[in-house]
Automatic annotation (TrEMBL):
Name of this chain's protein: Transporter
Entry annotated with the keyword Glycoprotein: no
Keyword Transmembrane found: yes
Database matches in Pfam families: SNF (PF00209)
Subcellular locations according to the entry: Membrane
Organism whose genome encodes this protein: Campylobacter avium LMG 24591
Main location: membrane
Recorded GO MF terms: symporter activity
Classification via InterPro entries: Na/ntran_symport, SNS_sf, YocR/YhdH-like
UniProt membrane topology term: Multi-pass membrane protein
């Protein structure tokens, strides 16, 4: 008999953990910084509810109705409806997207561990003010030109995932999230409070919350929509897999709303722990992906008790990354269990081992011996990010929306109505997903590839 989540709260914690990760705590703040602050935040909140929640429900419907792995979820046998097996291609693209994200995501976890251990050892000394030359030098020496060390820290992060994942859903994922989510919130609130008490915090808050409406344009909307899909782990087969263990009586509309709300709150709080400190010490907010690794250590070095705040911040990043990584592996592990008939322990070992060899190592070496290897004019690390994030996850999300609207049809509405009885809302969601969402996804796909 297949496992079910022990409670609604547990499921919400797991799905929230799956959607927070680096998307909310690392990617969201630097995108805000690059796109004019408050304008991006407002559009993000709107997009989260206009596109994010409908797409969570799309994947929830597919997953719970089939109650199998993310590959067989597109099989007519498990959806109990006659349609072409061609649709299993969508399952494959979702799994490829999950693999692509895991390939570089675990390496980012290794980077964060590198900073934590170097702060603890004093090798990265931020007990007194430092400048960008020092942080850039540290980043180059310890991230870009130390493949053996990054391999070691990445392997530690992978092993931590393995320890949780071999225990299964109830003893592994559920128990881990009950500990990790409160830890994440504790670290987050602590760093936010410290930053909001800085003398120049008001300027950072103004940048973060005051919208410059001249910044709102088509390009901004596209950037926000891409972030919503990334932040909610849509198109990676994660939500389909997690919802396949969901009880038929569960109100999926409520759980989708809670998941989106928690993700949005965490992302917005992440901005409050970054922008007040940047403006207090006169640093630019538009530093891009390296904001966390090269700019924030400078900020922490200029604070009272900066080493403690820095440590809490990087522990927060690691915790957020961990809550997502253990769910990113789950689609591949579940497929290995149900399609190859592997035990949980065997499936976990082979998935983590193969993704480490075929994904994590190439991404690590992209900054070392393989730095000259180019794919789509990008190094291997960036290529994994681009291909999974701009191709596989978008195609999977598009396929899922079309599958629900044009293949499952009334069966999709019936599935959503279990636990939720507002027929008007269900009808609006269905036709919105059927006609509007595919167009929006195609626009995101076009702009992600060709602009």
């Amino acid at each position: 008999m297949r496992h079910s989540w022990s409670s609604t709260l547990t499921y919400v914690l797991v799905t929230a953990g799956a959607t927070i990760g680096f998307g909310a705590t690392w990617r969201f703040p630097y995108l805000v910084g690059e796109n004019g602050g408050g304008a991006y935040v407002i559009v993000f909140i709107i997009a989260m509810f206009v596109i994010g929640i409908p797409m969570i429900l799309v994947e929830n419907v597919i997953g719970r109705r089939a109650s199998v792995n993310a590959l067989d979820a597109y099989d007519p046998k498990y959806q109990r409806k006659n349609f072409s097996k061609f649709w299993k291609i969508v399952g494959y693209t979702g799994l490829l997207g999950a693999y692509g994200i895991i390939a570089y995501y675990m390496v980012l976890g290794g980077w964060v561990l590198t900073y934590i251990f170097n702060i603890l050892s004093g090798n990265l000394d931020i007990s007194s003010p430092i400048d960008k030359e020092i942080t850039q030098s540290f980043y180059s020496e310890n991230i870009e030109y130390s493949p053996l060390m990054i391999t070691f820290y990445t392997l530690i992060f992978v092993v931590l995932n393995y320890i949780v994942l071999i225990r299964g859903l109830s003893e592994g994922l559920e128990k881990a999230m009950k500990f990790l989510m409160p830890l994440l919130m504790l670290c987050l609130i602590g760093v936010v409070i410290r930053n909001l008490t800085l003398e120049g915090a008001s300027e950072g808050i103004k940048f973060y919350l005051y919208p410059d409406f001249s910044k709102i344009n088509a390009k901004l909307f596209i950037a926000v929509l891409g972030q919503v899909f990334f932040a909610l782990s849509l198109g990676f087969a994660v939500m389909i897999t997690l919802s396949s263990f969901l009880d038929k009586k569960e109100n999926m509309v409520k759980t989708a709303l809670l998941t989106a709300m928690i993700n949005t709150v965490i992302a917005i709080l992440a901005g409050f722990m970054i922008f007040p400190s940047l403006f207090t010490f006169g640093l630019e907010p538009d530093s891009g992906p390296r904001l966390v690794f090269e700019v924030l250590p400078i900020v922490f070095s200029k604070m009272h008790f900066g080493s403690v705040v820095a440590l809490a911040f990087f522990v927060l990043l690691l915790t957020a990354a961990f809550t997502t990584s253990i769910t990113l592996y789950e689609p591949l592990i579940t497929v290995a269990q149900e399609k190859l008939k592997f035990s949980r322990k065997k499936a976990t070992f082979w998935v983590l081992f193969l993704t480490f060899i075929l994904g994590n190592l190439p991404c690590i070496l992209a900054y070392g011996p393989l730095r000259d290897v180019r794919i789509l004019d990008k190094n291997i690390f960036d290529a994994f990010d681009f291909i999974s994030g701009n191709i596989f996850f978008v195609l999977t999300a598009l396929g899922a929306a079309i599958f629900v609207g044009w293949v499952l049809k009334d069966e999709a509405k019936k599935e959503l109505s279990q636990g939720f009885t507002n027929k008007t809302v269900i009808d609006i969601w269905f036709y919105y997903v059927k006609f509007i969402v595919p167009i929006v996804i195609l626009i995101v796909f076009y702009n992600g590839i060709f602009t």
